[in-house]
Amino acid sequence: MDRLIYTSLTAMRGSMARQTAIANNLANANTPGFKADLAEAQSLWLDGQRLDTRAFASEEVLAANMDAGTVVSTGRDLDIAMSGDSMLAVQAENGEIGYTKRGDLLLSASGLLTTGDGRPVQGSQGPITLPPADSINIDEQGSVWIVPQGGDASQPQQVDKLQIASPAGSNIVKGLDGLFRVKGGGVLPDDPDARVTTRNLESSNVSATEALVKMIEASRSWDTQLKLLGDARDMDAATADLMSMPQ
Length: 247
Prior knowledge:
This protein has helices at residues 2-27, 208-243, and strands spanning 37-45, 55-64, 71-73, 80-82, 87-91, 97-100, 106-107, 113-114, 122-123, 126-127, 133-138, 143-148, 157-161, 164-165, 172-174, 180-182, 196-198, 200-202. By secondary structure, it is of the alpha+beta class.
């Protein structure tokens, strides 16, 4: 009896983990450059000095969907879309280097260049800080050019270059903060073939319709396991009644 109960319990936990991943994807359906979480189920066998007679279900976020999102034109000078698998290096909250496809860049009051969620953008010498300027432009190689305040518009100056890396051949994992990192530590190599398209953004690759369908499936799976627990309770009660019958 316990086999049915605990197997159903682990399946319910898996459904909860799947629902969490789907809810996170839906919440980021409009986040530029967001890559959908992929929740996968696997069997976990109980080891010990006995036969492997039971396996529990485990479902968790193991990877991310790296398919490209749709590139849309925005007309905004600081919006960029990176070609192929190229990723932008940013500074995470703990100071480590992380990587993202998010390209909605902003300029803070102090001149710090950040992504739309406030993460400092990395250049060749660290976080990019721009002086007051009449205009800012990013070329297709990722170089950042400005026309200083009161300067000659025909004589722009290069301030820095975006650090754009290639994940090809590297094992990268997605963190809870939505940033990608090299598994086990380290940094990705620069991508010499990277190309940047300005005034464009890569949108999220989450399909809201598909996510809603998966959410319904996860909910039905939860209901099924709940019914199995009810059946196990009824069978246990019936067995107890049978054992208590007078001889």
